[in-house]
Amino acid sequence: MDLLQLIDATRTEEDARRFIEKARWPEGIICPRCQRKDIHRFKRRNQVRCRSCRYDFSLTVGTIFHKTHISLRKWLLVVHMMTESKKGVSACQIQRQVGVSYPTAWYMCHRIRNTMYQPSDKGEKLVGIIEIDETYVGPKSNKPGRPAPGGPKAAILGMIQREGKMIAKHVSNTQGRTIKDFLDAYAMDVEILNTDEYKAYNAIEPYYNRRAVNHSLMYSDGDIHVNGVENFWSLLKRGLIGAFHKISVKHLSRYLNEFVFRFNERGAESILWLVLENCEQKHMRYAELVA
Asked: What's the whole-model pTM score?
């Protein structure tokens, strides 16, 4: 769905409400308490009542929109901006384009990121031919031999299934034991494991059919390469540097979920619709994010 289609579909606040309702309950409203469909819709307020358990609830209860004072039309615009921007969009950009304060834009973005998932969040594991690689994100030192002002870089492990999905996680280190735990947790039935010549991968050779490409000589040796993961790293780093400039390690996992979700679902008809389908989330308080 492009931006003009979204605007045409949500010209009023009631249109936006119906749009989200259709995504959340495609087969009709379901009571979040007893899971039944026997409901009564109030005409004079934006609530419905479950005739079975007598529970009154609104469209936004139990979702990322819970207790929001921001127009649902603005929420949908922000979701569209985040899902259709290949390298992400900053809270400053949303502040300017949507007309909200910076803390509000930042808070909205994190609540939306909470709906964005990786295959591992749904219990899926990668299979077949797997590429795995590591990278680091964080500040650079302006003076050789001295630490960066923001502390050490954060380590990330990522792997991709050939012609399949990507998984990336923030890890404490990139040692052999950590890499094996990462593979054991998120991959199964691995036929071939493609890596570069990073020494830590030597520790997992007894457990996997490993093939390594020497990046000092070539990017690929036939079908032995990690170009799929490298492609994702380029999107991630260009987004972090160009759009966000600086992020906290505390929130790195949410940013990874955003980039992985957008990368994995890039062929979907409407990524915005997928976010709305997954909008039922535990309410995230602003105080918890900034603590």
From this structure: 0.92
